[in-house]
Amino acid sequence: MPKNLKQIKEKVLANNPEVRADDIDYVLGERLNYTPSEYELHINDELTSDQEKEALKDMKKLRRGISPQYILGYAWFYGYKILVNRGVLIPRFETEELVKWALENIKSGEKILDLGTGSGAIMVALVKQAQEQGISDLILYASDITDSALRESEENFLKYDLDVKTRKANVLVGLEKFDMIISNPPYIKTSEKDLMDTNVIKNEPDTALYGGEDGLDFYRKFAKQIRSHLNPNGQFFLEFGFSEKEQLENLFKAELPDFKVEFREDLAGKPRMVHGRWMK
């Protein structure tokens, strides 16, 4: 007889205590297109032989330490299903707050850059939500340092029918001028690597995670380059590590005295986002 979801979950947990129960629930539920409540309602239902085969295959990958989103081939971000592979960062829900802040400032006809686009999640969410607000005629660019990320972002832009020009670039070198630049750059301190989740270390690309010894390598380069890549009165939105606010404040005061800079906390009350506008 085919197994049910509960039996599969219990077997994995019994033999692999390092696997998180939430990850098992997430993968099994997503494969069957269940909401969390539907998953609980159907957890004792018998699976078809095909469903059981797929579930066991997925659980084998989970036991090997592969992240749930990479097993599924997608992650959810701002309500959009974003294709992901192991060459790109898995988009985080916290970054949705950065998109929401940018949406409060975006205007029709602006030229936008998603810097370090990865999967393209930020661009997809920003533009689709802007369209719902009646904002139109946006000129869209996305850049990344790796070819694999650019390929993945292009798949997502095609999936959501977005006309985005992609560019390979290290920070802003070689790029044009924009009205808005938005980015979730690498900001984890290399000294904090041992504190990271094992799944993250094993699966996600170092280039999207680590920002040098103090986490600020990207921001130093960005601050020196930004004036050459913003139009007058242009603005930027960046995510950063919650322990880095004071250092960033000092950096931007020194490098960008002609910018109005504002910091914002995330829903957990930690400083995580910064907005700068060139007062020119």
Major beta sheet summary: 7 strands, mixed
Low-confidence stretches: none
Strand-residue proportion = 15-25%
Overall average pLDDT: 92
> What structural class do helix, strand and pairing data support?
alpha/beta
**Helical segment tally?**
11
* Number of distinct beta strands: 9
**Element pattern in H and E:** HHHHHEEHEHEHEEHHEHEE
Helical content (DSSP H or I, runs of 4+): 25-40%
Radius of gyration over C-alpha positions, nearest whole angstrom = 21 Å
**Order of neighbouring strands in the sheet with most strands:** 5-4-3-6-7-9-8
In one word, what is the shape?
elongated
Distance from N terminus to C terminus (CA atoms, Å) equals 71 Å
Folded structure, characterized:
With 280 residues, the chain is of the alpha/beta class. The protein contains eleven helices and nine strands. A seven-stranded mixed β-sheet has the order 5-4-3-6-7-9-8, sandwiched between helices. A two-stranded antiparallel ribbon has the order 1-2. Helix 8 (147-159) links the parallel strand 4 (139-144) and strand 5. Helix 2 (21-31) runs antiparallel to helix 4 and helix 10 (217-225) packs parallel to helix 11.
